Hints:
2 domains; TLDc_dom; 11 strands; 3-stranded antiparallel sheet; TLDc domain-containing protein
Amino acid sequence: MKIEIEKKWKKEVEDKNKEIEKMKPVFNEYEKEFELQKKLEPIKKNFPQFSETRIITEEEYVKKLQEWINDNDFFSKMKKGFSAKRDGFNSKIWHKAVDGKGKTLVIIKTKQNFIFGGFTKVGFKYSQNGENSNDSNAFIFSLRNDKGDRIPAKFTYKQNGRAIYSDLSRGPIFGGSYPDFWLVSNLQPGYSNFGYSYNPPNGITYDTNEAKSYLAGSYNKWVVDEVESYFI
Length: 232
């Protein structure tokens, strides 16, 4: 009788432990979400235009974007018109949201914890065959690398007629011919060929590993965690 009770007790303990193991990922997600929302509290309070962000967790980043865009009307009125996690990792959904909107801010966060993106005043177009757009005010930027040891930086456009590229089969593309960065149709794999249409930092030369890895850690060995696009 005692042996049977012990077996039953052990079985109950094992079952309970299995249930706990199954729930661990859920608990971890709740914990991550709690920590994220805690970090976002000052952003939501002081910068309501970023009240829905899941990427911009530092007030320094907001202030840098505000400084770089230098357009109070846009910055005060802009809204989060697209989120890959909310709306879907799909280039056609992204284009449906952003095409024809004019001034557009794109922010990308990778699973490797890089944060970068670009801004254009002319905006993206509905194009099935692909179309370059010139934009003297366009720029790309880096807010965070994987180690957090680089300060946020803005990179100006080279005026080569390829500020952005619109193509329904791909997501946001900054630069043309050999874009400085772009996302494929499901918005998750990405490529970075930094320095072709935008000026890299002093000391970094286009078509080197250092240039290709500057924005996202490598030319193509990075995966997108979230894409956010803002416009009026």
